[in-house]
Structure prediction request, 675 residues.
Amino acid sequence: MHLQNYVFLVVLIAALAFFAKSALRLISYLRVAKPTNRLFNIPKRISTTLLVGFGQSKILRDPVAGPIHAAIFWGFLILLFSASEMILEGLHDGWSFSFLGPVYTVITVLTDLFCVAIILSTLFAMWRRYISKIVRLQFHGEQLEAGLILLTIFCIVSALFVQNGLREHVHGADFAWAFRPFASPVGSMLYGMLGDASGAVFYVAWWTHAVLILAFLNYLPFSKHLHVLTSIPNVFLGPIAPTNAMEPIDFEEEGAERFGIVDIEDFTWKSLLDGYTCTHCGRCTSVCPAYQTGKVLDPRGVIVSIHARTMDKAPLILKKESGQELTEAEQAIWDKKLVGDYISPEALWACTTCGACMQECPVNIEHVPAIVGMRRSMVMMESQFTEESALLPDVYGNLENNAVPWGGFAQSDRANWAEGMGIKTAAEDPDMEVLFWVGCAGSYDERSKKITKSFAELMQIAGINFRILGTEEFCNGDVARRTGNEFLADSLTKTNIETLNRYSVTKIVTTCPHCFNTLRNEYSQYGYQAEVIHHTVFIGQLIDQGKLKIDKAALSASTITYHDSCYLGRYNGEYDAPRDVLESVPGVKLVEPSKSQDRAMCCGAGGGRMYMEETVGDRVNIVRTNQLLDTGATTIAVNCPFCTTMITDGVKAADKVDEVQVLDVSEVVRQHVNA
Ligand code: SF4
Ligand code: SF4
Prediction:
């Protein structure tokens, strides 16, 4: 070994030791949070990681920024190989992986291609950030830091490119299997220009590359670029299916005193890891219906704030745990509130729980459980409501007294819609093929009752032996759960499960995607198992089985657009069945809105927003309705009673009531099926 090798060894050991200290510090912060098991279903985790993490599947959905980021990511994976070669070369002059033969050829070609791609991508990224000024990229004065990072990446890769080009001239022809289609000609040109001085240039480039890589590694734990290290683990440990169920709370747990997320120690370690992993890319914010319509909610800001609170408070928790006293300044930080000082309650109440943020996040961060978790503490610990959510205590009172969110309705009237239709309740005759779960809107709301009747008639026409629970059906608990009143949701859930078990119900159909999601994905957390079907899927099955026959003679050509509800679409991945049903009606021409399927915009009613005021910014339902009206369709088909209300109001606001009708999928079918 030469002197420079010893110098590099010292630099390397110092850099790795400092990095290990930083990494251990960050890992110790995760210990302050609650445990959660994220190691089940390993095969699915591996495939998700390969697809979303290594395959960059979410990133690549953006046709402009996607390929840029993917090129940088894949390039870095290839360059990791070069980095390890660089370290070994630093310890032993002229060392290389060329003994790998043809494999080395592939690696050197890819390294060369990615060097060029990354150099061009970083230049393009700088142009987008500083010259085009893409709105999503302008966040909280991060411009300087982002610029320095791009410049560092540019220098790291350019230095590698130069040293690769000059290597064969400096070390002779030791690298027989190396093939660098871009660097070699550039190296030859430099060698021709610089002659013997090219050796010095090589070593300057080598040391620049080595020092910048080691410096960058040590900078990562202190920056938003920590995601370079945590993204792949976060995807691996993240959700392996749509996050469509909230974790229940065990209220009977001995000593339980804190409910919901009061501060960082109430999150699971995975939520804190989400904070480490957020790339600040803003994809979540750019699709958030609340943010798009001018509300204070910024899902990126929520995750960034959770991270900020983690970095502020976790060291203090550890300090206290070790028996040390906090200083006055530290006590002031300790006394701050996560909800209030870091995240505004208004932001949390603005969320519709639509899930668009999680759908879009390239590193599978889970915003909704965090937001609802903080709502839980606001409701159950603080009884804290804002101007917009001020009506919720009344909603809870209605649920407690009459098992329905709206006031003025009696539980005894729940089955009034069925009068004269010859529909039996489970209490009258429990022998059933399927239970029709009607839901609160379907039972009481005048417009929704028409949908309920329409679907019930279709089942009668198809000869389905169904029952309803009638006055024994309570609100499923979704409103209480999504607004943070888990105590009430827990009670409603247990009451309903008791009733369902009493009648041995094993198959349920419902016209409401919120009921559908809750019964399907959340009641199972309480041990209740049943096949739960959304009515659009059920109608499709009846048509396929020939039990429902479309009356072709009654049809005229009609253009229909379809609005995907969040809880059927993003939450449960059902996009095709409602479209197939609509298209099974001859004469129907289905046109897609600009935002559809998993990128459909929320109607604005989810997450309990149906029961809150909307006083800030534009109305979500109007923005969404305008997207649907822009298709030029004369019918807007929906699959949810809340969407029906919101979109109908949107059509009224656009003064299009005489031109455009809003119909549930079941109503479209019912219009074309003879009794
Ligand atoms: S769930 Fe929807 S409304 Fe809530 S933060 Fe995410 S995108 Fe915004
Ligand atoms: S939460 Fe995800 S989508 Fe949002 S800014 Fe962070 S990494 Fe991007």
Notes: The chain has four domains: 37-227, 264-382, 392-543, 549-670. The radius of gyration is 30 Å. The chain has 28 helices and eight strands.
